[in-house]
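To illustrate this point, what follows is a protein record of this kind.

___
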Amino acid sequence: MFLIGGVQKTTLIDFPEKIASIVFTQGCNFRCGYCHNAELVSFRQFYFEGQEYKPSDFFDFMEKRVGKLDGVVITGGEPTLQTGLYDFIKQIKSMGFLVKLDTNGTNPDYLEQLYLDNLLDYVAMDIKAPLEKYAEIVQVVPNTEKIKKSIDLIMKSGVKSEFRTTVIKSQLSFEDFDKIGQLINGAEKYFLQKFEASKILDEKLKDEKTYTNEEFAVICQNLQKYVKYVKVR
């Protein structure tokens, strides 16, 4: 199974220093209220010009992009819920493209296999909150041991990576960010993403705010005890 939820033909910002295409997968095991890809949360097929869009259609497109694109970003939803992810990535790599995977870290065994077989060139993992507050943010009861295992895998892999957190002020305190810093101590990069209420899963959050630039500056300064490169975006 590999359900594509959408395709963006070109991006200059989602794969650092690379020109890439983006594949959005369907289905997610979290229900974060601030999710801006709400249409990808449930499992359903993507249609293009009235036709079901299949992985083979994407590869036909990528054949025309050999020499023009550097890689592919696979995001979601949560891509590791797709049983066909491994073969999908393997085919991308066989075409000579780099692969960046976005994940919520709930499937470390799948992630580990991808690492072992050298199928990943960049991994971005969302850190929703300190582990003890995850359920509050993701609206399900997560296995935080698996999340911690994914963090450790990413940091020990030797593959380029980043961690990132979407920030709603009422959800995450200064102390929470310190706990996240401890959780990813020694990571390459950590990005704080400003919450925007333009298109979200839970409309009750539309009036929520993020921190001010001045407050973010204080948070970033503290986080640099743990992660050298911390940036707000």
Notes: The first helix runs from residue 55 to 63.
